Structure formats: structure tokens, C-alpha cells
Amino acid sequence: MRIVTFDGQDEHLKRQMAQLLVEAFREHWPDAWETLEDGLEEVGEMLEAERICRVALDDDGTLLGMIGGIPQYDGNVWELHPLVVQPALHGRGIGRALVVDFEGQVRLRGGLTILLGTDDEDGMTSLSDTDLYDDLWGKIRTIRNLKGHPFEFYQKMGYVITGVVPDANGLGKPDIFMSKRVR
Length: 183
Prior knowledge:
7 strands; 7-stranded mixed beta sheet; 5 helices; single chain; alpha+beta
């Protein structure tokens, strides 16, 4: 596996990336990228000059996963968006390798912190379907993963929950913010 910057020149790879967004998010976040056109639009945004767009490829050039980044706060903070790995390849270290590579890319650009949002739209954590305005930090402190939500993957990578937006995706459907200092 190799991780490289995607420059947008390979149209076949661009379509693979768009299709991966659609397919990988369909189960838990079906409204994220519903069509190939939606995926292609996201890939186009990932290719904007100031952003980071990295892909993990196998020896044959087949897409294994991808990660993107958006500078914020004058480049001091970078939003990790999106991270996606071929569903059949989960648990093989590809996501971990992409995140470690991304952290290095952020450091090279002078970034201090990475943040990400990881929605809970379908009851994947104990923060879903509850009134988060009642003892928010207590609920964050005792968060439980009910259905394989990715927040635990990020925790293993050193990210901490730094906030929650209650009802971000509808009543009882929060967005969980996580961050990590990389410098």
C-alpha cells in the first residue's frame, strides 16, 4: 500500500473515489453522498488548492481508501473530512495509516490541531435519542458505543471528544466533535 496526494488528473481514480463515498456511507449516513454526481462534487471540493487530498492505493493502483483536510483558523486547525476505506477492507490498518499520514501532512503545513465531526444519526452511541442539554458533559464522559460508531477508532488514534452539537441532524441526532493536537 502507498499513500499519495491525489491531483485530480486520473479520471478513473476520481470516479473510484466518488463511488467509494456513496457506497461506504450508505448504511449509516445515507444522505451524505447519495449519487455518483454527489461523490464527484465532493472529490472536486477535496481538490481545491488549499486542501489536503490523499489516497491509499494498492500495488495495482486500486483505491483502498482516502482522506481529506480543510484548513481553518488560518491553518492552525485542520478539519479531517472525509475519511473513508473500502468497507471490505475495514480492520486492516488502512484507516489508521491514512490518519497518521494526514497528521504528518498537517504538521508539514504548520497545523497545530486536527478536528473532526462524527455524526450519530441512527442511534449508534448513547448520545443519540437523549436530551443532551441535561448533563451534557456527564453524558460525554460516559459515552457508550452501541453499534460500531467510529468515535472509538478516533479515540484509539489519540483524539478526544471536545464537544457535541445536540440535534445537529434532527431531534436526538448529535454531531460529535473530536480533536487532537499534532504539534
